[in-house]
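quick one, two chains, predict together pls
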Amino acid sequence: MAEASIVRDGITLAAIAAVCTALVAATYTVTDERIAANQQAWLERSLQPVLAGLSFDSGVSESRLTIPAPHALPGSDDATVYRVYAQQSPVAALYVVSARDGYAGAIRLLVGVAVGGEIAGVHVLAHRETPGLGDLVETSKSDWVRQFDGRSLADPNVVGWRIKRDGGTFDQLTGASVTPRAIVKAVRQTLEYHAVHADAVFAAPSDDEETLQQ
Amino acid sequence: MTTLIERFRTGLWYENPGLVQLLGLCPLLAVTSTFVNGLGLGVATLSVMVVSNALVSATRRWIRDEIRIPIYVLIIASLVTCTELIFKAWFPALDRSLGIFIPLIVTNCAIVARAEVYASRNPVGSSIVDGVVMGTGFALLLMAIGAFRELVSLVWLLAVLPPGAFFSLALAIAAKNTIDGRRKNRRDALPRRSRLANR
């Protein structure tokens, strides 16, 4: 009799699993399009802070280029770049990178670099730094990240690309130096990457085009 | 009607999953840094609990004891996945601020507990009521703690940090026990006084 009950239990489990899977599949079909649209809208909204003040063609979010790890950008996972063009000529590159040496895990950064190497803007996308201290790097909480605007590898010089406590030019935050230190370092590393690879970054086909070709 | 009110009092107060049974503490402590987060996770947990109670109760005839746990897990995990998709589609901002805690509703033992203790032994209608009552109790506690921490954080930053969650929950439990204790004292004191008056 034991075998009969095993078979019966197996059938019960399989039937319930099938029903549950159908339920998830149905929900997925209904929500799929909305979720994709939301993610697109969210991405475009998060690119806004570093695009302010630039004139450019539309379709920035379609210009995504994935730079597979390992690369010279900050972070050990794949990095993403959005290219900004005006009449086919490059205007700026928006790097999505992660600073790994924050106080609590990786800090996701969006670093906008103009074609000439000046910073168009820096924006913190995601972080888990201490509320009230390290989170002042968020644009909504303080304008700390604004001090990068217009900076480049030549301004300040190599020694100056540090926080003031370490003898550099950038302000730290009261009570928090680990977070600013990590961000300054990541931004400098992004600039160094841009100085070497900018031409290749602007010339490469976007991820979407590559998928189409395959 | 009286029984319905009685059941709400049980779920919201006497057997509140968070305050009395102390179930589902991980999400309770982790997301209650703001009122809106508490509300979001509360509503998500409530809806999963209601539907899972309904499904477990509806299928209880065919589920033998030996395989009930994997089946509960299957049902709850599917419902949570659906909830996550729905949040992503219609409440993207809330989904971003709750992050991993929506998928983690799967591991909220308050939901399995209701499936095991109530839904597997009672008819569908009654199990749905149980899900509503217990889920509401949990959601209200999440909102109360979220609101409390958000307000206190204006003067004391620690309230929104992880330790603040422990303090707030401890205060909530202490407050409940104090109120229950006072009530009990009053109830004990009353007959004695009336006895004295009669003498």
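Residues 153 and 191 of chain A are 7 Å apart (CA to CA).
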